[in-house]
Design a protein that fits this description.
Shape: globular
Bound molecules: iron/sulfur cluster
Helix content: 25-40%
Number of strands: 9
CATH class: Alpha Beta
CATH superfamily: Aldolase class I
Distance between the termini: 43 Å
Order of helices and strands: HEHEHHEHEHEHEHEEHEHHHH
Strand content: 5-15%
């Protein structure tokens, strides 16, 4: 049983044969993609407060030290991002800050918000006004919390990380795999294009990795809502000295992710954290979000590659590099977008034109979103 699953009524059956089959997969069983994609984004850490204390994470700050970005700061970053041609505002916070974070809640109240989700909604609206499509990854969410912000996001996400119970998540306040799967299920029920992934090297074993991928696949089979799987290695930082997975591990797990998911789901390797050049033959087809404006606030010691570097990677792979929106084309073509996001993409202005220029595969955007 997946830890925490019963609490959320999550039933995921991973058959023994499926686990065995997936564990037998290696890089020789997959082909290189015929195209690589990426999104040009800005990274907006709405707050660094988080109720948890995962031992590999440098993102969260303890109560009294956590930041909350102001609406003015958000608008300014979004404006700079739009000027630099970005199309995605990646909003993050840790998991719903708990009541230890008095100062965060006092500030939210002073700005007229009862909850951080109310504030996230305002932040997403600011992004849309400034010509950037929101993609929020605010940790675990109840259905009500997600529903509150769903229509102002082009897509959303949360990393499953692993279905295993690992020491790295332990402590007085620990997230559970069941809670993460509940968030992924909520997105499916609400019809939200969704990004998830696995974090490799936090204490899970090979069987856990296979089961994690199969759990994501099962959610996708129910709702058809997963747009990409991120295969992310844990990396050394000020809080994590447990090492990173070696290249062979990353190659094998990337190939397993490719085989586990249908072709319509992208497999992403983050180029600032993994040696992407050596994963090109393992089935990756996306390089994630890269930012010409902001740093990766989750891994601030690992700089984004320049666009030139992504072009080099695509050249080595011998395939075209294509810029995409934070929502993948098939969701636009299949009518998954909310009204505010549809309006943004079809707008008769410079922002709408910029969005549409990255929808080559959607023959008539206006018709698709009607
Ligand atoms: S990994 Fe996410 S949930 Fe864990 S401490 Fe960091 S921000 Fe919080």
């Amino acid at each position: 049983m997946i830890p925490g699953a019963a609490e959320y009524g999550i039933e995921v059956e991973t058959g023994e044969e499926d686990v065995k089959d997936l564990l037998s997969v290696g890089p020789e069983d997959v082909s290189a993609a015929d195209e690589l994609s990426f999104a040009r984004n800005i990274f907006i850490p709405l707050t660094t407060a988080c109720r948890y204390t995962c031992s590999y994470c440098t993102y969260y700050d303890p109560p009294g030290q956590a930041d909350l970005m102001s609406p003015r700061e958000i608008r300014e970053i979004c404006r700079r991002g739009a000027d630099a041609g970005c199309t995605e505002a990646l909003f993050t916070f840790g998991d719903d800050p708990d009541d230890r974070y008095d100062e965060i809640y006092d500030q939210l109240e002073a700005w007229g918000h009862e909850t951080i989700y109310e504030y996230l909604r305002e932040a997403c609206r600011i992004a849309l006004e400034e010509g950037i499509l929101p993609h929020s990854n605010p940790g675990d969410q109840t259905r009500e919390q997600m529903e509150r912000v769903a229509d102002v996001n082009a897509s959303m996400g949360v990393m499953l990380e692993t279905t295993a119970e690992v020491q790295a998540h332990s402590g007085p306040r620990a997230k559970t795999p069941g809670q993460r799967l509940n968030t992924i299920r909520n997105a499916g029920e609400l019809g939200i294009p969704f990004t998830t992934g696995i974090l490799v090297g936090i204490g899970e074993d090979w069987r856990d990795r296979a089961e994690s991928l199969l759990a994501i696949r099962e959610m996708h089979e129910r709702y058809d809502h997963i747009q990409e799987i991120i295969v992310q290695p844990v990396v050394e930082n000020d809080r994590w000295k447990g090492g990173s997975p070696d290249l062979e591990t990353l190659r094998r797990i990337t190939a397993m992710a490719r085989v586990a998911m249908p072709k319509t789901v992208s497999i992403q390797a983050p180029p600032n954290l993994a040696s992407v050049r050596e994963l090109l033959d393992c089935g990756i087809d996306d390089l994630g979000g890269v930012s010409p404006v902001t740093v990766d606030h989750i891994n601030p010691e690992y700089e984004w590659p320049e666009l030139r570097e992504l072009e080099d990677i695509a050249e080595i792979a011998g395939v075209p590099l294509r810029e995409r929106l934070p929502v993948y084309e098939r969701f636009v073509a299949d009518g998954w977008l909310s009204d505010p996001v549809k309006r943004a993409i079809t707008a008769d202005n410079e922002h709408g034109e910029r969005y549409r220029s990255h929808l080559d595969g959607v023959s008539n955007v206006a018709r698709c979103v009607d």
